[in-house]
Amino acid sequence: MHALAILLAIVAPTFAYQVTGPSGSKGWTNVGPQPVTWQRVDTDPTNFTIVLTDTNRAELSEDQVLVAQQDGVATNTVNCNPPSAGWPLGKTFRINLVKSTEDQSTIYAQSSEFQIAVPNATVSGSLTTPLATTPIAVPTTPLATTPSSTTATGGSNAPPDPNSAAAIKASTGLMAILGAAAFFAA
């Protein structure tokens, strides 16, 4: 009987809740809700509370309850909203799945240490390299146009409509020249 109890004590933890994310290889960013994932077996309790903890109290002064009484049966993942002060930054965080907000010392599972970091920067904004190092001459005279036929209003040589094909072609050509100048200047 005593041997059976020892065997169950050794085997039981392998069949309990297991936090599969976050992990040391896949941490969180400090932006928006963050996912917690787990695995369970039928003998595990149906509910638990998700707590963010850190042994480095400079990073997190006290444990933070992220989700109270999470249903562990209906799903195996939940997105946790940040604490009221936002996600702290650091490298030694853990997620604990505990019995309840009142009983956080009964830990069903604990994640490996993971990092909460600023997300990778993405390139955005405008080009800061000068487009041209030499002035480009832009003609000051109007572009030549083909005289238009008489319109219904009686005009015969009216200036071209700024939305006409000739105006668009001219602005496209100017953009091509500026783009080429920027390319060769760089």
Automatic annotation (TrEMBL):
Keyword check for tRNA-binding: no
Family annotation (Pfam families): Kre9_KNH
Region ranges (Disordered): 138-164
Keyword line: Signal
Signal peptide (UniProt feature, chain positions): 1-16
Tree of life domain: Eukaryota
Transmembrane segments: none
Yeast cell wall synthesis Kre9/Knh1-like N-terminal domain boundaries: 22-116
Name of the protein: Yeast cell wall synthesis Kre9/Knh1-like N-terminal domain-containing protein
